[in-house]
Amino acid sequence: MGIINDPCGIVPPMAIPDFTLEDQACQPWRLGSHLDAGVLLVFLRGDW
Amino acid sequence: MASLAYRHHEILAAGFRTAAIDVDSPSRHAAMVEKLKLPFPMLSDPDRSRAIIPYGLADHQDPRQVALPSLVAALSGGKEVYRFVARDYADRLSEDTLVEVLASHGLPPTTQPPPTPGHSEPSPRAVPLRAMVPYFRGGHYAALSLGMRHRHLGEEFRDDAKAFVAEMQRYAEAVKALRDR
Asked: What does the alpha-carbon distance between residue B10 and residue B95 come to, in Å, rounded to a whole number?
């Protein structure tokens, strides 16, 4: 099992860095525009 | 990814939208979204400078420093509340645990528009959908036999092998379910 960190249980939650990346349709996707709900970011290895 | 797509409705019910990030190009991502019928966008961070490095998730053991498979959950407003970082590319959090962790924050259910299709250009190394179940089945039996063969190595090794066997089963089931949709 990897490293699991629940910042709520240890230190006050930190703000995640905002970013803008291109989506699969080459459209800009800005994290900050989607934070009116919770957001789950899934980081993948890629380059298979 | 197939297993996350399969459980996406539960992630939305827990109040979280999903976005996936790696170094691949939008056209590779368009192919992945199409193949796995992903209900969330895939985002490109080709030089790792915008998200992978700022989030501290570059794999320094890898010569290309691609991302370690990781999950970062933030509440509305952007406060990080959960992070899982894999030990290596084969290490994953179970979807059951993920959904349980997300639901524990008590957010109202949310919605997410389907990703916009893009120009699709799959990697020549991409496993076609029809081959994914046999691919995961191969991983399942390889982990099973290695787990049995080396069980003398101790409890940690046995638990690891067992987790990987279960992971391969979940992925194969998720692909079957997506294929039948």
From this structure: 10
